[in-house]
């Protein structure tokens, strides 16, 4: 999956930042950090024609199929004894604070703090994948606060974005294979 390593490391960085700010217990923090690394594992089950959100406009059917990677990831992780504690967090990453999410329509108070943080990480990754500038990402986080995102976690996510000096994906550049030239 192109860019997965960079996105996983960024997810881990955000998970560590927010969990420190909130003061998660060590076991909860460890589970969250591990889940952040596995956030996209279910994408291995997606057909090639299902693109990443943000790379091009996708129709709602493809969006729904794309987001199903969270369910496949949950199923995959729950089948491995070492990672069963991460399975529910990965499966809930598309839920929303207001209950309008996927797959179960859970509200903020029905999810663990770890799930709410992973949900914010996923939201951030999708905004960054659209190629938005830092200010636009911050605006979208603020707009989603209390709707898609837990307001407190959204505030910490904005802090993270403001403190982060680098480009959201480091110095990674995506180019089409036909654009490559010798040398």
Major sheet characteristics? none
State the shape: globular
**First-last Cα distance:** 25 Å
How much helix is in the residues?
Answer: 40-55%
SS summary, helix count: 8
Structural class: mainly alpha
Q: Total number of β-strand segments? A: 0
Describe the structure in brief:
With 183 residues, the protein is an all-alpha fold. It has helices at 4-22, 26-37, 60-67, 69-78, 84-91, 113-129, 134-144, 151-163.
Q: What do you see in this structure?
A:
By secondary structure, the chain is an all-alpha fold. It contains 8 helices and no strands. It is globular, with a radius of gyration of 16 Å. 54% of the residues lie in helices and 0% in strands.
Which descriptors apply to this entry?
183 residues; mainly alpha; 8 helices; 0% strand; globular
Topology of helices and strands:
Elements: H1 4-22, H2 26-37, H3 60-67, H4 69-78, H5 84-91, H6 113-129, H7 134-144, H8 151-163
